[in-house]
Amino acid sequence: MSEHSLTVIRLENASSAEREEIIVGVRDLLLARAVILPNDRRGALWQPSEWKPGPGARRAVVEPVDWFDAFLDTANNGVDIYGDRDVYHPVENDEAPRCPHCAASAPTAYTDSYGDWLQEWFADGREPVFACDRCGWSGLVGDWTGQFSVLIGAPAVTFRNWPPLSPAMTTDIRAALGGRTGIVASHW
Ligand SMILES: [Zn+2]
Prior knowledge:
Layout: E1 4-10, H1 16-32, E2 36-38, E3 51-53, H2 57-60, H3 68-72, E4 79-82, E5 86-88, H4 108-112, H5 114-124, E6 129-131, E7 138-140, E8 151-153, E9 156-160, H6 167-177, E10 181-187
Antiparallel strand pairs: 1-9, 1-10, 2-3, 4-9, 5-8, 6-7
Helix pairs in contact: 1-6
The structure holds zinc ion.
Residues 99, 101-102, 104, 132, 134-135, 137 line the site of zinc ion.
């Protein structure tokens, strides 16, 4: 069975104390709306995540979703909130992001030096900057447009095999994470 996930990530650096505070904020937001509940049946093959969908999950997704009831019974439909900095890769969805000004694809340097800049970003925490070939705009890789490109950051919230989240829900999660944020939609 093919699987997918959606991760909302804070890109801006945060101290470990800040990250802990942010995690509490995100968790409380999702719990207060009953979007998630503690997963009382955790198991590697069935539900590995710390959180499971709650009754409020229906209101957190784009309406209408005709497979929502089936979704509640599927394996691996949990939610995880991560505090440690990590790499979020779109796997089979992978594509270069687009310029927020002219929608051109990221320059060839993005693809050609992918492994190098990704490793540097992870190792030293400096998010790379790319310049647009078409219009000259340049910006941090997380400020390019798209949700099918690799990102690094913390904290992050991953929804596993969920229907698409509503724009309002996504906006609220981004606000709870604070600072610059990004989204990675993965498929594998
Ligand atoms: Zn451009």
